[in-house]
Design a protein that fits this description.
Helices cover about 95% and strands about 0% of the residues. It has 1 helix and no strands.
Length: about 45
C-alpha cells in the first residue's frame, strides 16, 4: 500500500513538472517568435 502511495505522489510530481516544463517551452517559443518578428520589422523599416 505504501508503495502505491509513493508511486502515486512521484507520478503526480512528474506530471506537474511536465506541465511546468511545457509551459516554459511555450513561453520561450513565444518570446523567440516575438524577437524574430521585431527583427523582421527592423529590417523592413530600414
Amino acid at each position: 500500500m505504501f508503495r502505491v502511495i509513493v508511486l502515486g505522489i512521484v507520478g503526480f510530481v512528474e506530471m506537474a513538472m511536465g506541465f511546468i516544463t511545457a509551459g516554459c517551452v511555450l513561453l520561450a517559443a513565444a518570446a523567440i517568435c516575438d524577437t524574430i518578428e521585431e527583427a523582421l520589422h527592423r529590417v523592413k523599416g530600414e
